[in-house]
Amino acid sequence: MKLSSFLYFAGFGIRTVLFRKKDPILGTIILTDKCNLKCKHCSVNNITAVVHPYKQVREEMRLLYGMGVRILFFCGGETFLWQDKEKSLRDLVAEAKAMGFLIVNVVTNGTFPIDLPEADLILLSLDGTREQHNSIRGNTYDLIMENIRNASSDNICFYMAVNQLNKDGIRDVCLKAKNTSHVRAVSFNFHTPYPDTKELALSREEKRDCCRVIAGMMQEGAPVFNLKSAFPYLIGNRFPTPCHQCVVMENGKLSTCGRCVEVPGLCEKCGYFFVAEYTLLFRGNIRIILEMLRTYPRYI
Questions:
Q1: What is the predicted pLDDT for the residue at 232?
Q2: CB 60 within 8 A of CB 66
Q3: Which CATH architecture has domain 3-299?
């Protein structure tokens, strides 16, 4: 991370903590809900299968930037399916950088060639061992690994949603992140139980066991892009929601924190590690602040 960016985020954090401000700093644009996969734990794919046009996406970028957002995520569906005439995902990342966003990340399922060195991070879904991953996402594991080997940059971060089908695969994904070229780190979430995927949710005891494994892998040197200080809050869902510093834009609609915010009762069962980390950070949790200062500069 550039020193100028670090100082900008530090200033934002100090103002937010001291004055209890609720201004956003992280924004996500949903480029499309169209996806080439139908994963067992996903509730937001192919609802409309609309690919939002370039002009609209650019206006959404400008709106978020004007609100103060400086960390931008492009998400789907599958983001690499986005295209509007001659414009591609690569063009959007470059334009976001030129617009002034300090960090621009992309979320993908990894089934398309990974040639996007302009992105700060490419968060790529890997959901356990080969068998576990394929049981969730279809027969895609080997294709993803081939795409990673052929990637044009080392800006990949594995992104694992831990659920009942893959909770025993955490160690395997950590080792893959540690030993695979072009992969910088791994970031975890617990499954957030949308109404049609409740059966995949983890119990408190299972979350505790998973956190023990993740913490153990951290001690072994695995590049885990999460904050251990947030684990106790995640286990018991004891962190404040929603996260007002994060917003999501989908087809012109702005939501605080995420698309799930409007589902009754779902905030209280949130499994997103970054939501816990950010809400605790901006409430002034000293342990979270200190650990974030040690962790984030390593991976961005």
A1: 98
A2: no
A3: Alpha-Beta Barrel (3.20)
- Torsion sign across C-alpha atoms 217, 121, 286, 269: negative
- Residue linked to tokens 């809050």: 233
Residues 178-233: tens digit of each pLDDT: 999 999 999 999 999 999 999 999 999 999 999 999 999 999 999 999 999 999 99
Which residue bears the tokens 């709106």?
63
**SS3 call for 248:** strand
List CB contacts of 62: < 8 A, sequence separation 6 or more: 99
Distance CA 120, CA 105 (A): 6
d(CA 58, CA 87): 11
* Closest among 141, 152, 206 to 176, alpha carbons compared: 141
- Measure the CA–CA gap between 80 and 13, rounded to whole angstroms: 32
| 236 C-beta neighbours (distance < 10 Å), count | 11
Low-confidence spans in the chain with pLDDT less than 50: none
pLDDT of residue 262: 85
The confidence score (pLDDT) of residue 261 equals 86
Instruction: Give dist(CA 232, CA 228) in Å, integer.
Output: 8
CA 300, CA 295: separation in Å to the nearest integer?
9
- What's the CA gap between 273 and 276, in Å, rounded? 5
pTM: 0.96
Report the DSSP beta bridge partners of residue 29: 74, 249
Q: What pLDDT is recorded for position 44? A: 86
Backbone angles phi, psi at 74, to 5 degrees: -105, 125
